[in-house]
Amino acid sequence: MKSRFDKEQIARISIEYAAVNNYWKIFTRENNYVDNRQRCNIIIKHSFAVACRNYTNLSLSEIGGVINKDHSLIVHACNNHDANYKYLRSYDRVYNEVKRGIMKHLNYESDVSSANDLKTVNELRDRLIKVSKKLRNKITELNYLYESEKLRPIRLEEENEFLKKHSRQVNDRNKKLEKELARIKNLI
Fold first, then answer.
1. pTM: predicted TM-score of the whole model, two decimal places
2. Contact yes or no for 85/103 (Cβ under 8 A)
3. Which of 95, 12, 113, 3 shows the shortest CA–CA distance to 48?
């Protein structure tokens, strides 16, 4: 039985899927995405789905798998893309940001995957230098994320202490109001 795709196409699609999936995780973390029906989260989902459809070779189901939705959301997002882009101010900004991010991630992956198309050693050397620069930039970016995540528990502890203090104040205020209410009931 003959396969619909050859091995190179399967490898390219697998690389695209991994790159897009990685970018989705990064993008959602940066933009505080929550999987609900709030407009801001729908805009993120739809713009990501349309950008994936336009700039990758992934199927509707594969794109849906990345964002944990079925293929019908991608079809719906593609059908409404022009209206969203035209009438929602934030949609065009998010869409363009997602498009740039996907292209950046796919470009990085395509540099590695297309190395077998090179004819000379100098072309290969130049390509490896480009990839090396991109990898160094990626490492710097990841180190920055790692350092910021190390500080996150400290910020969370400070926020937790503030919330505990606020909770105690609210509880004290509530007890005072209950006493005052009981006193007023006794007067009536």
1. 0.56
2. no
3. 95
How far, in Å, CA of 90 to CA of 60, rounded?
A: 24
- In angstroms, the CA 147 to CA 128 distance is 28
- For residues 72 and 23, is the Cβ–Cβ distance under 8 A? no
C-alpha to C-alpha distance for 99 and 4, rounded to whole angstroms: 28
Residue 58 φ then ψ, to 5°: -75, 150
Could you give the CA distance from residue 64 to residue 69 in angstroms, rounded to a whole number? 5
3-state secondary structure of 138: helix
Cα–Cα distances in angstroms (integers) from residue 42 to residues 96, 103, 130, in the given order: 15, 21, 36
pLDDT in tens, 115-144: 555 567 777 777 778 888 888 888 887 787
| pLDDT score at 48 | 93
Say how far apart CA 51 and CA 77 lie, in whole Å.
10
Count CB neighbours of 60 within 10 A. Answer: 17
Query: Residue 109: pLDDT above 50?
Result: no
Q: Report the C-alpha gap between 172 and 166 in whole angstroms.
A: 10
Q: In the chain, what is the greatest distance between 2 CA atoms, to the nearest angstrom?
A: 97
Asked whether residue 108 carries a pLDDT value surpassing 70, the answer given is no
Q: Which amino acid is at 154?
A: I
Report the CATH architecture of 7-107. Answer: Orthogonal Bundle (1.10)
Angle formed by the axes of helices 71-87 and 89-113, to 10°? 130
